[in-house]
Sequence to fold (107 residues):
Amino acid sequence: MLYKFKSSAAGDLIMLEPNGRRVLEIMGKAPDPTGIILPEQMAAAMDALNAAMAREEAEQQDAIAQAKAKGESVPRFDAINLRKRAWPMVEMLQRCSKEKAPITWGV
Fold:
């Protein structure tokens, strides 16, 4: 399944199901087949995504520091982290918030 996010203020954003589900859950939205993000919800959604991205990066840096401190090999992480996957949604939220245009999916 794909999530196709649409708005009149931005181009379409397509995400594979696992990535779209994760982004929606971080923003506090149900990962249903259809849905809407209203302009008044966008600031909180951007804050949630930014916090999750920062938290993931801090956890990874902490894991690296702990491994180095123990003399263990540094852990490997996905080459495409949450920031890379979620940033297009943050940009879409910024544009749509400015234009006061909702974002829908599955409609």
Q: What stands out?
A: The mean pLDDT is 95. Residues 42-70 form the longest helix (29 residues). Residues 34 and 107 are 6 Å apart (CA to CA). The radius of gyration is 16 Å.
